[in-house]
Automatic annotation (TrEMBL):
Catalytic activity: Preferential cleavage: (Ac)2-L-Lys-D-Ala-|-D-Ala. Also transpeptidation of peptidyl-alanyl moieties that are N-acyl substituents of D-alanine; [GlcNAc-(1->4)-Mur2Ac(oyl-L-Ala-gamma-D-Glu-L-Lys-D-Ala-D-Ala)](n)-di-trans,octa-cis-undecaprenyl diphosphate + beta-D-GlcNAc-(1->4)-Mur2Ac(oyl-L-Ala-gamma-D-Glu-L-Lys-D-Ala-D-Ala)-di-trans,octa-cis-undecaprenyl diphosphate = [GlcNAc-(1->4)-Mur2Ac(oyl-L-Ala-gamma-D-Glu-L-Lys-D-Ala-D-Ala)](n+1)-di-trans,octa-cis-undecaprenyl diphosphate + di-trans,octa-cis-undecaprenyl diphosphate + H(+)
InterPro entries cross-referenced by the UniProt entry: Beta-lactam/transpept-like, Glyco_trans_51, Glycosyltr_51/Transpeptidase, Lysozyme-like_dom_sf, PBP_transglycosylase, PCN-bd_Tpept
Name the UniProt record assigns to this protein: Penicillin-binding protein 1A
GO CC annotation: outer membrane-bounded periplasmic space; plasma membrane
Keyword vocabulary terms for this entry: Carboxypeptidase, Cell membrane, Cell shape, Cell wall biogenesis/degradation, Glycosyltransferase, Hydrolase, Membrane, Multifunctional enzyme, Peptidoglycan synthesis, Protease, Transferase, Transmembrane, Transmembrane helix
Amino acid sequence: MSKGKKKEGSKNNTNPKSKKIVKFLWVVFAAIIGITGLTFGLIATGIIGYMPPIEDLENPIDKYASQVYSSDNELLGTYSQSKENRIYSNYDQLSPYLVQALIATEDARFYGHSGIDFYAVSRAVVKRVIFQQESGGGGSTISQQLAKQLYSPPAESFLDRILQKPIEWVIAVQLERYYTKEEIINLYLNKFDFLNNAVGIQTASKVYFNKLPSELTIEEAATLIGMCKNPSVFNPKRRPEATRGRRNVVLEQMYKANYITKAQLDSLTQLPLTLDYVRVDHKDGLAPYFREYLRKVMTAKKPDKSNYASWQMEQYAVDSTTWENDPLYGWCNKNTKSDGKPYSLYTDGLKIYTTVDSRMQTYAEEAVREHFSKELQPLFNKEKKGRSYAPFSSSVSKQVDSLIYKAMKVTDRYRSLKKDGKSESEILAIFKKPVDMKVFSWGGEIDTTMTPWDSIRYHKSFLRTGFMAMDAHNGQVKAYVGGIDFKYFQYDMVNIGRRQVGSTVKPFLYSLCMQEGMTPCDQLLYEQRAYITESGKPWSPRGARTSMLGQMVSVKWGLQNSDNIVTAYMMSRTTPYALVRMLHTFGITGKIDPVLALSLGTPDVSVSEMAGAYTAFANNGIRVNPLYVTRIEDAYGNTIATFDSRMQEVFNELTAVKMLDMLRAVMDGGTGSRIRYKYGLKAPMGGKTGTTQNNSDGWFMGFTPSLVTATWVGGEDRSIHFDGTAQGQGASMALPIYGLFMQKIYADPRLGYSAEEQFAKSPSNLSPCAGSSIDETLMDANSIQNSMGNGGIDDMFDSY
């Protein structure tokens, strides 16, 4: 009995202590639960941490690069903020292997949790924290990793990272509330930075494998998902072996998750790491000048007169007119999103569908390279070799240093040194000190040692070009080459640069005279005449054919041979003011001096304006403005803007018949005949050569029934040019680019251009020589060709 009591007493003695311990543990547990709940509640309400507002959670990625597409649906390039070259991709555009690899590697129970995988967290705590096993695995779900990518700033310490974790858990749960599992995967892959300017899965697929995400193979998908662990360590470009090993780990995880078979695993892990690397840089790829022009146009702001200097008033007037009349100019600032904010070209993920055809663009760039690298630049170098004033002309031989000094002052290096407070003498000393640098050459970029001063002169020795091809009927620009190399020569000679047009202006004068009743068959005595200018001085242009002096020639012969005596006569039949009005009708902008010499090509005009102007000759008198973009879509594929051609009648149908007859004669035996005998192009064509004084500018305008092109070639400075006319005229400098381009166009049946295509037949009652006293020209194309021999006409000097 006493024994029983003793035992009972013992029990009574231990129960109070046990109860206290258990109670204490329950209190601690409850406190932990309460504090945890309170903490998570405070985080969820935004009192603690950086819980994003609901509107941010509903649209967590607000930075998508805008994409520029060609008319044949090739991606030409993107516009993005630094390190945000992300292109939006839908879940259904992902390869299933990407999804499988991601889940198998990063979150095996992804479809079973609501943002937090407590089993994975517990495993990570036990293995990594308690047992210090580095291979213990992570506890973060895909949702948590997405939350980290979206909202966690870089942690400055381990403690900061520990404090970030609960915040990411709450955000992960919130993301699971707003998005389906598929949407979370899509967000994760769209957000991730794969380095090498490859942000998001679509850009990464393009950069590393030159594919769309939907086209990725199993091993390629495993490679990209393997990078998600650490894109710096597992980077296929810099560390291929480490990346291959990580890829194989991902493949093993896919096998364990039953996404691939053992046979697939064994064969895929044996494959080498194979890339099709495509460097992403706005200076690389097709049509860089076009893409840069498009960027400037779309982001232009409404012209403010106070932002223009006094000498820029002409440009202010042009920009103001363009702002009002061109819907593409300033589009991003003219149009707003649903939230009332203007569109951003860099973050809103726009899809810009352009008129440029990637194949024709390739042919244009190839034609420029072939002509310059194989023929034109070697000839220029040969002419200038050994001349102290090279690459300038002899007329400025005493001014070379001042010209280089002037060029030095507009370089980034000069501006930077000036900003640092360097004096002119200090800057000059720096520019004349040799440094390691890369320079341009037609054989490829060269690593060399050179003074910055000499590098300026070296790069000026390369001739430049501007080339544009556009549809004659709808204005769609098919090819756009603003220079010879965008990395080294970024000045756009299609739309930004303006140079004197020489004899390519003559068809505008002839159109005016034809409109006023003249015909191609009208004749005049071929003799040098003196005309009195507005200032009372005599103006007496010389002709190129002294053997013809005293004979009768036709108007058609004059244009065919680009003869200045005939042109001066035509100018005397009208007024400079009427010609200025006609030029504006042709789409030539800017201030044009109404002087007699205007008829020989004194105004500065852009390549794009010239191309647009010449569409009137191929389009029965209707001029079409260049059209660069057909439509714009938002990031989700909704069309938000469309663009149409803008046209204007320049002259009537009878004048069109007259001008087409004369401009075809230029190609069939006139100054453009090199197209026939050197490039073998027999298709119906019209065109016009142009050369300015001292051979500073060489032009060629060419058109078929469907395609109009404009080509300019010259030096960066007007004083950089051929000293000899044979190589310095438009027929030698610019025409070959057109010839090479059209050879390539007609050789590609996919493009739909045929050498058999004919110009539209004119009504039977319309004749080029209607109203003329004679029925045909004094000397037709064949007789001229026979009398001069091959190359005779186009080797003549046809400048003002």
